[in-house]
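JOB MANIFEST
job_type = single_chain_structure
chain_count = 1
residues = 186
[input]
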Amino acid sequence: MKFREACAAAVSMFSEKSFAEKIKEEDPAMVKYMPLLQKINKAGFLTTNSQGGHRSKGKHYQTGKPYELMERAFVVGFMLEADAAKFIKAIGTQTDKNAIFLPVGISVDNLPPDLDIPLTIVKSGSDISVETHVAAALPKEWSDSFKKSVHLNKSEKVVYILCWDTKWGRHAAGKHGLFTQILECL
């Protein structure tokens, strides 16, 4: 499938009840972001994963110690290379967000997780643990798998992009939220 066809298929998928139910099961907080993500896909950023950015507090179920969970909003997915170059420049110059091209080719065995970009952390007292993170490179096996999952053929020059908010806990749909500003930069 050509890139624009894959984007159109993704846009259609966001309208399916079964997809909404799946998202609701996996991460209920993401349901409210689906209309924005649908627009992002329609605009040419074929998303494969995302997070809305929130902050919550609680007590550990075993120890009873208080903790705070903090997320950065993020989106990863494919873009046509020419569009990605313009998008990365726009995000980097017009917002306080980050966007990078993830080169393909590193081996899965050579991905040191301690060098990844933290996207979700849990703070408990002075302890901080990284719960969600992403590497700044993409193993070929993962790239092939992601392309297969969105039905992309290999005839077009597409690149894999990571875009994330610099602020912990900022909701992606707000005026200065990541998803809102991605749309402005597309």
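[summary]
The chain has one domain: 3-51+72-106+134-185.
The helical segments are 3-14, 17-26, 34-42, 81-94, 140-149, 178-185.
exit_status = 0
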